[in-house]
Batch of 3 targets.
Target 1
Amino acid sequence: MSETFTIKRNDTSPAIRWELEDPDTNLVGASVVFNMKNTVTGALVIDRGTAEVVEGTDRPTLGYNWAEGDTEVAGLYEAEFEITFADESVETTPNSENIVVKVVVDLG
């Protein structure tokens, strides 16, 4: 089952984080991007947004800091992180499903 990340419309915090399954994944020298699409329209809302390797965590963790406009439209989205390792190999995670992002209408 997919993990769901929930955030209110127009919020830029908290950042989305994703722990990798393999605790031995070497992210030294890796670059990471974040992709997110609207599940209803299929529109790609975030296309290769700059993501990061999160330091100081127990497991290898990726993160994306929301930019203004990323959460502008309430609804359901699918998301993924794409890692390019130091050896230029590429892995998309999660690789068996997508992260579900739920943007909830705010009250004000």
Target 2
Amino acid sequence: MEAIRVQQTVQKSGELTIRNLPVEQGQQVEVLLLYTPSNKPERPHSTARQLLNSELVGLWKDREDIVDSIAYARQLREQAQKRPNVGGVLDDSPGQ
């Protein structure tokens, strides 16, 4: 498969027209659209001191059902990674 790179500015919201491509009628093509979100909200950055002083540190300290917080956090991360369609991405791996 060959690649063609075309960069242009969107003139009408939700529409993009690409012309004069070196492809023939009936030829199979795949289109991958990469863009920079224009209204991406900024995530605030925290310093280590701010994190230590936040309510996140020690969040599970009074939980009697969590014996090993490190193992519990690891389990939560593994479960999150195995969920199908997380963040709009479909997981096509076997066994899912």
Target 3
Amino acid sequence: MLDDLVDEDLAAIEDEMERQTPIPQAVPEKRISKRQSLPTELPRTIIRHEPDKTRCASGCQMKRVDEDISEKLDYTPLYLNR
């Protein structure tokens, strides 16, 4: 009789644990950018933003750490050309 009660309790605990276990969510796929590079034949204007001083307060020469590059297509709408 005690064995039956223990088995019922174990079954109830296992059921409760299954309900409490979170369902693993599907990992979303990495989105691929649909934006393509601009054609190389388009004219480009390079704008560099440099600091006024390239030496720190102690007199050491500063070093370039990283560089951000972005491209923006400049256009004139057709209705302004008339």
